[in-house]
Backbone:
């Protein structure tokens, strides 16, 4: 029987795996490494993270170590391209030789004192502890007031609209006005999209570099004081949520500025979708709340992600029924463990108890450190 099974081979799962290996805690990661990043993010994308957002709790296999091996400097690679980040993660996995089983979990059940895990390759595993580190994959969110107005087949979420060359010589409306909306806008234009329209309910964010140093301080504080966020008053929690929101949502990275302000990009601040009608030419006639009417071939919703634990398809109904959740999030203790002994959740799913910082890779090392402490105790 396995001591620990990690479900998910993205940054949170891989960081935890490397940390557990260092601690000599036996475990296996189930998943396809960085698959969401490779398949659900577009070619040419830049990340908002810095080189200090590396994956090694021990501080050995850092991004700077990777750069040094290749004779590069931080200044040469920031802003970090998606392809560069994926290269770093592949190098990290080579250096750490992680135990990864490339399959998908189809069913997770809790037995008396262990978990029974079925995989899509026919394997059946037994584990004393399970860490769910699935990231964003199951939680793309488009508001119902948008989906109710758009006909099926004419819209897709950003995480499914990643082959941007498919929109060459087409007209696209993007709904949403934060970083991803403008990132997709720039990339679509550069892939030959004829016209990109962008509708959002607020003023246009400023093109100004985001500063994340204070967030690193917060996640490091949580690493030493795990209950720090949950001990804040409701007003205190909201203050940090707003501060993070303002840093990440009220600013657009400067590298987008010139790429957005082009003749074939039209911005519609303080607007929202009012109606969408299929024309005889199979395009969409769109009307916005400002009264403007535009014609497009497809709509992309850049409306983010929203955790809803019940959307995890591999959770057995009996396990899900016994799992305590609030606002769609699993309720977690100071080491990311749910009310079901031995079952942990991290990444975006830890956001309610540990703060919204855990939706970002800046928090991978703190997550691994705290979960690792708990699992190490249970391995002795």
Residues:
């Amino acid at each position: 029987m396995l001591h620990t099974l990690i479900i998910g081979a993205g940054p949170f799962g891989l960081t935890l795996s490397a940390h557990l290996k260092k601690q000599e805690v036996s475990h296996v990661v189930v998943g396809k490494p960085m698959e969401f990043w490779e398949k659900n993010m577009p070619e040419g994308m830049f990340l908002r993270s810095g080189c200090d957002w590396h994956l090694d709790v021990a501080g050995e296999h850092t991004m700077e170590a990777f750069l040094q091996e290749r004779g590069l400097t931080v200044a040469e690679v920031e802003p970090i391209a998606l392809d560069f980040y994926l290269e770093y993660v592949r190098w990290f996995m080579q250096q750490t030789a992680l135990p990864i089983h490339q399959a998908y979990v189809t069913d997770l059940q809790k037995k008396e004192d262990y978990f029974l895990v079925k995989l899509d390759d026919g394997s059946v595993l037994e584990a004393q502890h399970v860490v769910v580190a699935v990231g964003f994959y199951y939680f793309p969110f488009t508001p119902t007031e948008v989906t109710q107005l758009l006909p099926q087949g004419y819209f897709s979420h950003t995480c499914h609209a990643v082959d941007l060359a498919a929109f060459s010589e087409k007209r696209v409306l993007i709904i949403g006005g934060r970083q991803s909306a403008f990132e997709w806008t720039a990339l679509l234009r550069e892939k030959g999209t004829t016209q990109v329209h962008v509708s959002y309910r607020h003023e246009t964010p400023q093109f100004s570099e985001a500063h994340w140093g204070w967030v690193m301080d917060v996640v490091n504080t949580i690493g030493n004081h795990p209950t720090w966020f949950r001990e804040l008053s409701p007003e205190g929690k909201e203050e940090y949520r707003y501060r993070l929101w303002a840093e990440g949502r009220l600013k657009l990275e400067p590298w987008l500025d010139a790429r957005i302000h082009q003749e074939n990009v039209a911005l519609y601040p303080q607007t929202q979708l009012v109606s969408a009608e299929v024309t005889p030419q199979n395009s969409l006639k769109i009307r916005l709340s400002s009264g403007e009417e535009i014609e497009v071939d497809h709509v992309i919703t850049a409306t983010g992600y929203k955790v809803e634990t019940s959307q995890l398809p591999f959770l057995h109904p009996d396990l899900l029924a016994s799992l305590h959740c609030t606002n769609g999030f699993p309720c977690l203790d100071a080491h990311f463990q749910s009310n079901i002994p031995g079952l942990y959740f991290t990444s975006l799913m830890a956001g309610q108890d540990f703060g919204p910082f855990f939706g970002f890779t800046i928090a991978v090392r703190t997550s691994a450190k705290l979960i690792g402490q708990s699992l190490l105790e249970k391995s002795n």
